[in-house]
Amino acid sequence: MKKVLVSIVDDDRFFRESMCRLMRSLGHTVDVFSSAAEFLASPRLAETACLITDIHMPAMSGLELYRHLIDTGQTITTILVTAFPNDVDRARALNDGALCYLSKPVDEEHLTRCVREALKSAGSKT
User: Fold this and answer.
1) Which of 21, 51, 70, 112 could hold 78 in an S-S bridge, CB 3.0 to 4.6 Å?
2) Interhelix angle for 62-71 vs 87-95, to 10°?
């Protein structure tokens, strides 16, 4: 089965909803989650081809979520977004293999390119 689901994890309801609308307008299947724990407990985790997650969230950050996925062998192409970009997080995320590290407000064209690349790489792995 080809993975095509885009999962969005962000504690900010407005951002989740706007990202969901954008991804659906581009023709993608989307699911949204308000926390890393909610995403990790989801039965749709295995279907996720691209993860878009906020870095700064309570309980488990987007970086911690990404690291957890890597450590448990669940490789999901990941795009990290943040309202508080910094070079240390950017370097760490990209060195760990995150596809993109984007600042909020997110540039829709850049995000679209990242998602397209994520889905292309997910398609080649299945």
Assistant:
1) 51
2) 20
Rounded to whole angstroms, the Cα distance separating 104 from 125 reads 30
Secondary structure element (H or E) that encloses residue 16, with its range: helix 13-25
pTM for this model (two decimals): 0.94
Residue-wise pLDDT tens digits, 42-57: 999 999 999 999 999 9
Q: How far apart are the first and last CA of the chain?
A: 7
Residue 90: Cβ within 10 Å count: 17
| Helices and strands, counts by H and E, the chain | 5, 5
In angstroms, the CA 54 to CA 101 distance is 10
SS3 80: strand
User: Max CA-CA distance within the chain?
Assistant: 37
